[in-house]
Inverse folding.
């Protein structure tokens, strides 16, 4: 099978290139070859490469900057998935697309299920929700995996920032009233490989939205504390920062964050027989790689 991966230079995309190599021939265009902000560029590349699957990991993810760049955020997050869906349908190809917990308003404490009403708080979440809708409206055979708090051993992410700051500062003040599950980018790539291997050339029987996040839950402060605990075990004599939990009101941002990012991943387990590992287990593996 021919597998087209968008956003191959990103955290999830980079892992997909490796994970999908066991499933088929991976096509990983650069931004210059396939610009998600240009519908024409997207159409031309898909028509030229004629993939059997399009794994759509590319996205505009600058949550705060999206508030001042809504046109670009919508071009990449909303319009591109619709174009991908249209071209996939024309080719008879299937799509895996990654979305986000930011499509919800963060109310309550119950983990969100796929059928819950959406209500994004900012441009990023709204643009990602519009992308989901555009892809499904295209009529393409598509699976949408909503995830949360993505991190990995490479790229710019919360974990790598915390490990750096822990060595530089005595105290880290981190939000402790936003709840969710950190999700390793490699776990998301493995899920895609599993789903493609299980469904073959068509996602038609399983088209729809699925929640796919790390098991368990924590806060950003809890995530940081666990990472620093691992670092301290490796460097017992190092003087590392102490994590101090603070409310979101003490860390204002341009875009509001959902307080409840918990995702119920039961549908994923039921349909694909797949559960993403508990977040602490995956974190331990990532840190092992970083410290190796």
């Amino acid at each position: 099978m021919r597998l087209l991966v968008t956003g191959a230079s990103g955290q999830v995309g980079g892992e997909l290139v490796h994970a999908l190599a066991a499933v088929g021939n991976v096509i990983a265009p650069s931004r210059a070859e396939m610009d998600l902000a240009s519908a024409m560029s997207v159409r031309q590349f898909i028509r030229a490469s004629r993939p059997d699957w399009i794994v759509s990991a590319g996205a505009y993810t600058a949550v705060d900057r999206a508030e001042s760049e809504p046109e670009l955020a919508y071009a990449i997050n909303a319009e591109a998935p619709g174009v991908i869906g249209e071209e996939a349908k024309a080719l008879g190809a299937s799509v895996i697309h990654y979305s986000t917990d930011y499509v919800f308003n963060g109310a309550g404490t119950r983990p969100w299920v796929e059928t819950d009403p959406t209500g994004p708080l900012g441009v990023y979440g709204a643009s990602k929700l519009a992308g989901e809708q555009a892809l499904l409206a295209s009529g393409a055979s598509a699976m949408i995996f909503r995830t949360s708090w993505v991190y990995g051993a490479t790229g710019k992410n919360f974990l790598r920032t915390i490990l750096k700051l822990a060595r530089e500062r005595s105290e880290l003040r981190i939000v402790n009233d936003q709840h969710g599950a950190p999700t390793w980018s490699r776990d998301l790539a493995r899920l895609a490989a599993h789903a493609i291997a299980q469904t073959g050339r068509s996602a038609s029987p399983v088209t729809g939205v699925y929640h796919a996040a790390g098991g368990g839950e924590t806060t950003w402060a809890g995530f940081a504390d666990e990472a620093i605990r691992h670092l301290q075990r490796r460097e017992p004599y190092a003087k590392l920062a102490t994590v101090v939990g603070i409310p979101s009101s003490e860390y204002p941002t341009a875009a509001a964050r959902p307080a409840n990012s918990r995702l119920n991943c039961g549908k994923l387990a039921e349909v694909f027989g797949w559960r993403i590992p508990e977040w602490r287990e995956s974190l331990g593996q990532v840190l092992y790689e970083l410290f190796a």
Q: What stands out?
A: The chain has one domain: 2-157+183-217+261-277.
